[in-house]
Structures are given as C-alpha cells and as structure tokens.
Design goal:
This protein is 41% helix and 18% strand. By secondary structure, the chain is of the alpha+beta class. It has one domain: Reverse transcriptase/Diguanylate cyclase domain (Alpha-Beta Plaits). The protein has a 5-stranded mixed beta sheet with strand order 2-3-1-4-5, sandwiched between helices. The radius of gyration is 16 Å and the shape is globular.
Length: 182
C-alpha cells in the first residue's frame, strides 16, 4: 500500500505530490493561469551539530508546521529525500511568489531548534515561463537557489539569461524559454 503522507511531517508524499502537481499543471495550461515552484534548500550554521533521529524528526515536524502556516490550503508541499522542500503555488505571479518566498524565508530564519542556526535558500521557477513540466520547474527552481547565492539573495527567481558553464554542468537545459514574464 502506497503512503500518501510523509510519516514525520505529514506532508504530501512524493508520489501523491507528483500526481497532484501534474493535474494542477494540466488545469493551469487549459485555464491559462500561472503558478510557481519554490525549491527550499536548508543548511545548518557552523555551530550546528549532527541531529539525532529524534531531534531531526522534531525539527522537520516544526518546519512542516511553519510551511503550512505560510501557505494556502490548495498549495502542495513536499519534503524531498535530501531534506529540502518543494512548494507548488497555484494562481500566483512573479511578485506574489517572491513575496511568499520572502515570508517563508523569514519564518524559517526565526525557527529556533536545538541543532544550531538553520539557513534557508529559496529558488523560484515560474509556470509557464520557466517550464511547463514539474521536472523543468524543479530543475530551474533548484538552479535559482544557486543563482541567488552567487548574487547574495536568500530568495531568488530563476534568471533564464544567466546561462553559464556551471549551469550547463549542472544539466540545466539551454532550450529556449519564454522570458516575457507577465
């Protein structure tokens, strides 16, 4: 029997996240609305210690609660196997996605936990401009995290013009995409 929720965070499990997002993307294409995929990457401060399984579970439970508080009921949240998070926002433009990303970043920066300071970097890919599939959006949101770090931004929208050798090494496609962000 398939799990439909992560057993620690009670967030949507990977398979269900993918299914719901594919349905959402189909509806978005048919009805012409916009969305955003946020890639939330976490790192622990220099003074952080390795979490025990109990501390780690408690930390991710608290993090999931914070993410649920900052999102709407129709939004999808996934904790990846690497411990990062994906967040699919429906019916948002670039400005609203950036606003939500900054709000989440601030909320996570204030999260007090026993492992040390947690830092978040958030990359945003916009549908349909940065991709039309979950894979394309996830890839570009992941790269937006790294683009943001280079520019000193904690929250960053994918920049399709910033194709670099490092981007190509990461496997980011250089296929033409629509850069007119409405």
């Amino acid at each position: 029997m398939a799990n439909y929720a992560d057993l620690v965070t009670y967030l949507t499990a990977s398979l269900l996240f993918e299914e719901k997002m594919e349905v959402s993307l189909s509806i978005a294409q048919r009805e012409g609305w916009h969305g955003a995929l946020l890639y939330i990457e976490l790192s622990f401060g220099a003074g952080a210690k390795a979490p025990t399984s109990v501390e780690g579970e408690r930390f991710f439970e608290q993090l999931a609660v914070r993410l649920k508080e900052e999102t709407r009921s129709g939004d999808l949240i996934l904790k990846t196997e690497k411990g990062d998070f994906l967040l699919w926002l429906q019916h948002v433009d670039a400005e609203k996605a950036l606003q939500i990303g900054k709000r989440i970043h601030t909320s996570l920066e204030h999260l007090i936990e026993p492992l040390g300071q947690v830092r978040s970097s958030i990359g945003i890919a916009l549908y349909p401009y940065d991709g039309k599939t979950r894979e394309q959006l996830e890839q570009r949101a992941f790269y937006a995290v790294h683009q943001g770090r280079v520019r000193g931004h904690a929250v960053h929208i994918y920049d399709p013009i910033a194709q670099s050798p490092a981007e190509l090494e990461l496997g980011i496609s250089d296929e033409p995409i629509d850069t007119s962000r409405g």
